[in-house]
Amino acid sequence: MAVEVRNIAGRFCVYKDGVDTGKWASTATKAAEIAGRFGKLAPSKPPREAPPRPAPPAPKPAPRQKVQGKTGVFPGEVMLAKPHKDSEDYTGWWMSEKLDGMRAYWTGSALFSRNGKPIYAPKWFTDALPRMALDGELMTGRGKFNETISIVRKQSPVDSEWRKITFHVFDAPMQAGPCEKRWEEMTDAVAGIPFVSPVEQVRCTSPKHLATTRAKVSALGGEGVMLRAPKSAYEHKRTSQLLKVKSFQDAEAKITGYIPGEGKHAGRLGAYEAVLLSGPKTKFGVGTGLSDADRERPLPKGTIITIKFFELTPDGVPRFPSFVGVRDYE
Q1: CA 121, CA 119: separation in Å to the nearest integer?
Q2: C-alpha pair distances (Å), 291 with each of 114, 145, 313
Q3: Which of 101, 176, 257, 326 could be disulfide-bonded to 273 (CB atoms 3.0-4.6 Å)?
Q4: Are 156 and 120 in contact (CB under 8 A)?
């Protein structure tokens, strides 16, 4: 008598003399045990277990969407400039005024400083901005850096103060293409917003053109000129594709004392006595740039301030130093 186990549609059925006994099991091993009751199992290769069905492939993750500045997430770093070289010819590069304001990055839904700290602008201000990432500077005007900083650093914005602010935009970081294409899209996006102004870009035609532009900006009280390589991308780092041509240098200094005022400033601060943080520790005075409020309420000794100056003397002392502000802004 021949006893065997056959795999029928996933069931392991016991057959005797070619006839189904009606007995079956879910595994070949268990079916062989049952078959032993009907006689000796035929010396054939036992049926294999049905191979398990392969697991369905995991669904492919959805492609990551490009962030177009709509999520409110700061990108981590903005594009920063390197110093230009007097020996280089920048003919063909784009020139614009170097603005002396508060760097601001608009993600499309939130405003941040260059270091990623939130800027608390009024709702009417942010509601009017496009759903496009913008990079620029907040300013009240040339030579009004301290006023600008005092307005934009407040966590409870004052509407009447923010009415003085203009958002000067110079790039659309998340838009594709070279800078010329991004500028075009940026300009279209902010058209009609009264407090947003695209920064004018002028093609440099010669070294003399750059020198003339720098002189004009300085005469207007501007800080210098920015140079942008043609057809350049937006890079979230300090890059040689963006250069600064400054009429004045800037540095950090520490207040070491006070120089009494004279004439109209008699009875209050005339100038701070200070030393540069890096370089010779020769003391110098810095009074230009101080407001009446600054002179009435002097900063404590040891405070780190930012100054700008024309050049250093052979002794390492800043020539024509001017107070810019306390070095705790972003």
Answers
A1: 6
A2: 26, 12, 26
A3: 257
A4: yes
Instruction: Using the structure block, give the residue that is written with the tokens 């996006």.
Output: 189
Judged by DSSP in three states, 236 sits in: coil
Share of the chain above pLDDT 90, in %: 57
Q: Which pair of structure tokens corresponds to residue 108?
A: 């499309």
Token pair of 139 as six digits: 């300013």
Task: Output the CA torsion sign for 146, 148, 152, 158.
Answer: positive
How far is 140 from 155, CA to CA, in rounded Å?
18
pTM: 0.61
Q: How confident is the model over 145-166, as a mean pLDDT?
A: 94
Strands 238-246 and 284-286: unpaired
Q: According to DSSP H, which parts of the chain are helical?
A: 28-35, 123-128, 145-152, 159-162, 179-190, 207-219, 292-296
CA 54 to chain centre: 46
Residue 63: what pLDDT? 40
Q: Name the helix (H) or strand (E) containing 137.
A: strand 134-139
Triad 97, 278, 298: Cα angle to 5°: 75
In eight-state DSSP terms, residue 252 is E
Torsion of CA 191, 192, 197, 202, to 10 degrees: 40
Residues 9 and 26: their CA atoms lie apart, in Å, by 11
β-pairing, 166-171 vs 196-198, is parallel
Strand, coil or helix: what is 289? coil
110 residue type, one letter: A
Q: Is the pLDDT of residue 80 over 90?
A: yes
Q: Where do we find the tokens 């203009």?
A: 166
